[in-house]
Automatic annotation (TrEMBL):
It comes from Xenopus laevis (African clawed frog). Belongs to the DHHC palmitoyltransferase family. It is a multi-pass membrane protein. Its main location: membrane. This is Palmitoyltransferase. The gene is zdhhc21.S. One of its GO terms (biological process) is protein targeting to membrane. Residues 89-216 form the Palmitoyltransferase DHHC domain. InterPro entries: Palmitoyltrfase_DHHC, PFA4/ZDH16/20/ERF2-like. It catalyses: L-cysteinyl-[protein] + hexadecanoyl-CoA = S-hexadecanoyl-L-cysteinyl-[protein] + CoA. PROSITE patterns: DHHC (PS50216). It is found in: Membrane. Pfam families: DHHC (PF01529).
Length: 265
């Protein structure tokens, strides 16, 4: 299976992705420059803290870019339906194509997506069977990066000793203060938003229920775990190796487990 790229033409979505990318770039540029490097020079933090920041930042942006341009699980034009699974497929009345159950037609993208979770404007892409794992990584690393940024912003003012090397004039000092206040504001918004989103996503995977299924209010039966958590997570991430669940630099290979055998409608 080759690397399949997917690009949704939606100017509103581009603006949303642009905003997220801007927040990432802003913090990746200013937090090391204003906090990490000066504190390191004065011996208040270690080189490991700087490396950890950059590593989290790289994992964050890679999962953002990959989640945005990965094929979420778009259906092929003429899918081959295995004879044994025929009753597990249905017709989409919008694009008039056969699709496995649990697929959903995304009106924003204009096609059906396998095991679609939702359409996310912040990555300008659907979240479906093939990129759900990247979306989860994005939530995880964004939480980590914004949490780390908030801790650094806090320590910079309230915990670390004042920088001895400050010989800037007042204008530069005020400029630095404004930049860090913006960083703190972004950190609070991102951390708060991502914590609630991540929690919702994890609960969805644990109960093997997509966001669309939850919203369709057909969850009375679904909202209880029917598979071990290791299995539901392994199916989403495409591997049983838990360490690989955290790595965005790899290709997902679907496990030999069919989602369509679940009793979802
Ligand atoms: Zn469709
Ligand atoms: Zn979509």
């Amino acid at each position: 299976m080759g690397l399949s790229l997917h690009f949704v033409v939606d100017p509103q979505g581009w603006c949303c992705v642009g905003a997220i990318f801007f927040i990432w770039l802003y913090n990746t540029l200013f937090v090391p420059k204003l906090i990490l490097f000066p504190r390191f020079e004065e011996g208040q933090i270690s080189v490991a803290a700087i490396l950890a920041y950059y590593l989290t930042s790289i994992f964050c942006v890679i999962s953002l870019l990959r989640a945005s341009i990965a094929d979420p699980g778009k259906l092929q034009d003429s899918p081959k339906i295995p004879l044994t699974e025929k009753e597990l497929w249905e017709l989409c009345n919008k694009c008039n194509m056969m699709r496995p159950k649990r697929s959903h037609h995304c009106s924003r993208c204009g096609h059906c997506v396998r095991r679609m979770d939702h359409h996310c404007p912040w990555i300008n892409n659907c979240v479906g069977e093939d990129n759900h794992w990247l979306f989860l990584q994005l939530c995880f690393y964004t939480q980590l990066l914004s949490g780390y940024t908030l801790v650094l912003d806090f320590c910079h003012y309230y915990y670390f000793l004042p920088l001895k090397a400050i010989n800037w004039d007042m204008v530069i000092f005020r400029h630095e203060l404004a930049l860090l206040r913006i960083s703190t504001f972004m950190g609070i918004v991102m951390f708060g938003g991502m914590c609630s989103l991540f929690y919702t996503q994890i609960m969805g995977i644990l109960t093997d229920t997509t966001t669309i299924e939850k919203m369709a209010n057909c969850c009375d039966e679904i909202s209880r775990a029917r598979k071990p958590w290791q299995q539901t997570f392994s199916e989403v991430f495409g591997t049983r190796w838990k360490i690989l669940w955290f790595i965005p630099f790899r290709r997902r290979r679907p496990l030999r487990v069919s989602y369509y055998f679940a009793n979802h409608v």
